[in-house]
Design brief:
The chain has one domain. It is built from 7 helices and 2 strands, in the order H-H-H-H-E-E-H-H-H. A hairpin with a 5-residue loop joins strand 1 and strand 2.
């Protein structure tokens, strides 16, 4: 899958360089959403994701992309950088495999922020998530240590593990 994501990102990177964000008027709503999905899955390419977010914000301002896409991408980037997300769109499994929001800035204001960008209430999203279970790693500490090393290696984090 990593090879597929890299190939898709390389193609989209060329499109971004030539045309900017491929908005709905250029590629239709399905094409625009496909571009967003490519970026969402390019987690091994921090600079590409950050550039895409800037271009996507501009597309949202022009009415060429829905606001929820930029918010979900922003939350994804924030969690990968180790910062709290704003809209509680990124979920992670707890010890039993139940999905819950990753660390979120100002949790008391999250519903208002979600509503402002057209996202469903968090309670509804979590109700759907309660029917899903994610497998949990047998050795959670090792998994977390390796994940932190990967985040540093690809450029999301600069601090040493455990910092």
């Amino acid at each position: 899958m990593e090879a597929v994501h890299k190939r898709n990102a390389a193609r989209l990177r060329a499109i971004l360089a030539a045309r900017g964000w491929p908005g709905a008027s250029l590629v239709g709503e399905d094409g625009e959403e496909a571009a967003w999905l490519i970026v969402q899955h390019a987690i091994g390419e921090p600079d590409f994701m950050r550039l895409s977010l800037r271009l996507l914000h501009r597309a949202v301002e022009r009415g060429e992309a829905p606001a929820w896409q930029a918010t979900m991408l922003e939350d994804r980037i924030r969690t990968l950088e180790g910062r709290p997300q704003l809209f509680a769109t990124q979920l992670e499994p707890d010890q039993e495999g139940r999905l819950r929001p990753c660390r979120t800035e100002d949790p008391d204001g999250v519903e208002e922020r979600r509503r402002a960008v057209g996202l469903e209430p968090l309670a509804e999203r979590l109700a759907r998530a309660s029917r899903e279970r994610e497998p949990t790693p047998a050795d959670r500490e090792r998994f977390e240590r390796e994940h932190q090393e990967w985040l540093r290696r690809v450029g999301w984090r600069t601090e040493p593990s455990g910092a």
